[in-house]
Amino acid sequence: MEVLKGWKQGEVIDYVIESDALGYTTSMFIVMNKEKYDSLPPDIQQVFDDVGEEWVDVHGQIWDDADNAGRAFVKELGKSIHGLPPEEEARWVEAIQPIITEYEASMQEQGLPGTEAVKVIRELIESYK
């Protein structure tokens, strides 16, 4: 929903459909080489751990606020946001499954846990509904 205002898409589209069942397009994280992390003194490791925990909620709130601003923006333009009836939402979820399956296979071929990643993402989406 953020793109409606942030990228000004709300100015050029006539209809907005919102569906949490399709997932969210952003997953962000900060990583550090494990050997480097392990080489840091415990008090510095704790700083990274504490800031990481704090910023999970802060970052989530920032995105929620940006999404809300996008929703408000299109409403100010006189446009409306529509949800999907459950049957139609299920049809859309089914329609995108081949893309997800292709992603999982691509990651697995590279030795990465694509299937497990998708499973975790789905569990997280469900837990935050």
From TrEMBL:
GO terms for biological process: transmembrane transport. InterPro entries: DctP_fam, TRAP_DctP_sf. Keywords: Signal. It comes from the Bacteria. The keyword 4Fe-4S does not apply. Coiled coil: none annotated. The keyword Signal applies. This is C4-dicarboxylate ABC transporter substrate-binding protein. It comes from candidate division KSB3 bacterium.
